[in-house]
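Q: Could you fold this chain for me?
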Amino acid sequence: MKAFAFRLVDDGLSEADWLESLGSFLALRPPSKWKDGDEDTFNRELETLAGRFKRAESLSFGSSVNVRGKMGLRIAVTQADGSERQEVIQSITNEEVDLKQFQNRIAVLIPRDTRLEMALISAL
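A: Sure. Below is the predicted structure, expressed as structure tokens.
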């Protein structure tokens, strides 16, 4: 996962070279030389590593130092069938104004019953 993360943020390569590097890492062959199954391998490995990255981000969320000017939220919703979706969301100061405006507009529509409020928010 560390090598994957380093490739994602490597800004020392041109876009074409970056894509070749990432494709080579995930599919074990540069995209310019891919064969029939290599795109499937790339997609499968990308999904696997992205999932691992998101789980690591979620696990480290509570232990991270609060950065001034940033708002962090971890939201997890589990459906009755056991399926779950979770996201760690970081916003920066200039986004907080927009978020506050949305919050104010939506707040008047949300019921004051905590249970219904949470059900509505999770459905959204």
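A (continued): The longest strand covers residues 70-78.
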